[in-house]
Amino acid sequence: MEMYRLFVALHLLGSAVWVGGHLVLSLSVLPRALRLRSPAIVQEFEEGFERIGIPSLLLQVATGLWLAYFRLPDVASWFFPSSQQAAFILVKLALLTATVALAAHARLRIIPKLDSANLRFLAYHVAAVLQAAGIVEVEHEHPLRVRLRSRVR
Question: Which of 1, 83, 97, 119 has the most crowded Cβ, counting Cβ within 10 A?
């Protein structure tokens, strides 16, 4: 159970960095860049955030897969759900795939070609990342509830 708690804590830490960085981007950096029509503001933020943002996303992927396996070791059932737990994992995997695809698209396509004309597109893109990440993390089970349940068994 200690390993489970460690992985939940790491997963939540990665989530806090990933979502928190995108909140700063969407609530502070992007509005200023849009107002001034300055992609350099976003590019400067991205250079700094990328060093911790991408590792935090990779941490979420690794710990999330481990947590899913811990909950349901039959990996095949993740893709053909016959239980509520398997359906939950499938939804999280779909949202994870969307989040990773959006992150890769931003990093490889949008940021390198960022200019004042496509700043608004980046804003919509960031909103989509926050939606996918928010839905994934809001549904995550809290470690305290796991501990309380484990004592009941």
Answer: 119
Sequence-ordered strand ranges (E) for 92-142: none
Nearest to 65 by CA among 10, 21, 103, 114: 10
HSE (CB half, 13 Å, CA atoms) of 106? 26
pTM: 0.80
| pLDDT, tens digit (0-9, with 9 covering 90-100), for 48-71 | 999 999 999 999 999 999 999 999
Phi-psi region of 136 (alpha: psi -120 to 50; beta: other; left: phi over 0): alpha
Interatomic CA distance for residues 47 and 25, integer angstroms: 12
Q: Domain boundaries in the chain?
A: 2-152
> How many angstroms from the chain centroid is the CA of residue 24?
14
